[in-house]
Amino acid sequence: MLAAMGQRGELYDQIRANGFHVTVGEAKKASASIAVPVFGSRWRVVGALCIGAPADANVAASLAKLAPRLKRAAESLSASLSYDDDSAVQRVTMARSTWHP
């Protein structure tokens, strides 16, 4: 989220260029994740979409393969949240209440 909020530095520049970030063993030794930013109105960062997985030898590549789909999902959610009216909140609530794996 720091990269999306404008943090300076080489790592953050790379994250912004990619539009996502994969971590392995950063928060916990046995975990990995990929995250993409979610924006609200006026391009303010409101959160992130993240997928977590157990860390193993191939997890970084596996998570990176999910980046295009995760980015599309974040872009769609960001578009919904960028509206200032209540209908956007209703659309997100409706999607959440009907979604299932």
Number of helices: 4
The second-level CATH architecture is: 2-Layer Sandwich
How many DSSP-defined strands?
A: 3
CATH topology: Beta-Lactamase
Radius of gyration: 15 Å
The end-to-end span amounts to 26 Å
CATH homology superfamily name: GAF domain
Describe the structure.
Pfam families: IclR_C (PF01614). This is IclR family transcriptional regulator C-terminal domain-containing protein. InterPro entries: GAF-like_dom_sf, Tscrpt_reg_IclR_C. Residues 1-83 form the IclR-ED domain. By secondary structure, this protein is α+β, with helices and mostly antiparallel strands. Helix content is 44%, strand content 23%. The chain contains 4 helices and 3 strands. The two termini are 26 Å apart. 16% of the residues are buried.
Give the gist of this structure:
The protein has 101 residues and is an alpha+beta fold. The protein is built from four helices and three strands. It has helices at 10-18, 59-65, 67-81, 86-98, and strands spanning 21-24, 31-39, 45-54.
